[in-house]
Amino acid sequence: MFNLILFGPPGAGKGTQAVKIAKKYNWIHVSTGDILRAEVSQGSPLGLQVKAVMEAGHLVSDELLIEIMKSVFLKHEEAEGFVFDGFPRTLKQAEELDKLLVGLNHPVNQVISLEVNEDELVTRLLKRAMEQGRVDDTEEVIKNRLVQYHKHTKPLQLYYQEQGIYTEVHGVGGIDDIFESLCRAIRI
Ligand code: ADP
After folding, report:
1. Domains in the chain, please, with CATH?
2. Is residue 126 lining ligand 1, measured as CB closer than 6 Å?
3. If you count Cβ atoms within 10 Å of the first and of the last residue's Cβ in the chain, which end, N or C, has fewer?
4. What single string gives the DSSP state of each residue in 69-92?
5. What are the tens digits of pLDDT across the range 109-151?
6. Side-chain-facing half-sphere of 112: CA atoms under 13 Å
7. Do 161 and 136 meet the contact criterion of CB atoms below 8 Å apart?
8. Ligand 1 in contact with 89 (CB < 6 A)?
């Protein structure tokens, strides 16, 4: 089993690339953003709980995310690997993920960060707002999500660098070129 975390700010292209990676290596793509959005659109109790938080660009609680991850692992006991997209986003989530994976006997193998400069990120997120109408893609909420990223998520870089499993890949250019760079960086 291989556990890959795709790391990087909102708008870095993690979702696009995670789908391609999961397909190529036959791994399960875990997007916590997609999971949460599905709950919101179904109007489930969990969805009702997180809707306002997501719309404001804030982070959903660690406790909820950890429950979600536990159910992901239960659902995919036979998985050959996972590509995590949008998780972990806090140190607490990273530590809990490690605990869950140690329990499964398969630690995080690699963390690859998609490097994209801030101007490009904002441009991409505003474009996505026009195309997909995501309620958390307004200019103010985008700023908020970037602030949350720098405050809570970016520090995880050090956590994974200290474990010697962190790599960076340039995330600007054609989707297929970036995908190739990612595949070259993956050390199975
Ligand atoms: P993006 O990567 O474009 O910021 P996502 O689709 O990954 O967006 O996530 C959308 C929203 O879902 C986040 O702004 C946050 O409110 C919530 N969310 C997703 N994953 C997490 C997580 N691991 N921890 C806390 N909140 C999360």
Report:
1. 2-185 (3.40.50.300)
2. no
3. C
4. HHHHHHHTTT-SEEEEES---SHH
5. 999 999 999 999 999 999 988 898 877 888 889 999 999 999 9
6. 26
7. no
8. yes
